[in-house]
């Protein structure tokens, strides 16, 4: 049996992080966030549910989603809504 941990691609890691954000946003705010595209530098997400028409969605996108992603992926240049 190998003691080596599995290696995950940056996209797989990013997908997992966004899934955690989605669960939190869904539970506490009734919104959703899903990964649409990732080219290595730019992350595109879709905000849905209660976030879709919310006037605070730019704050959620840039303050919360982008802020969290950049903590774990400092090389990402920006997060934008698709």
From TrEMBL:
It comes from the Bacteria. It holds the Pfam family NifU. GO terms for biological process: iron-sulfur cluster assembly. One of its GO terms (molecular function) is iron ion binding. Residues 28-80 form the NIF system FeS cluster assembly NifU C-terminal domain. Gene3D superfamilies: Fe-S cluster assembly (FSCA). May be involved in the formation or repair of [Fe-S] clusters present in iron-sulfur proteins. This is Thioredoxin-like protein. The lineage of its organism: Bacteria, Bacillati, Chloroflexota, Anaerolineae, Anaerolineales.
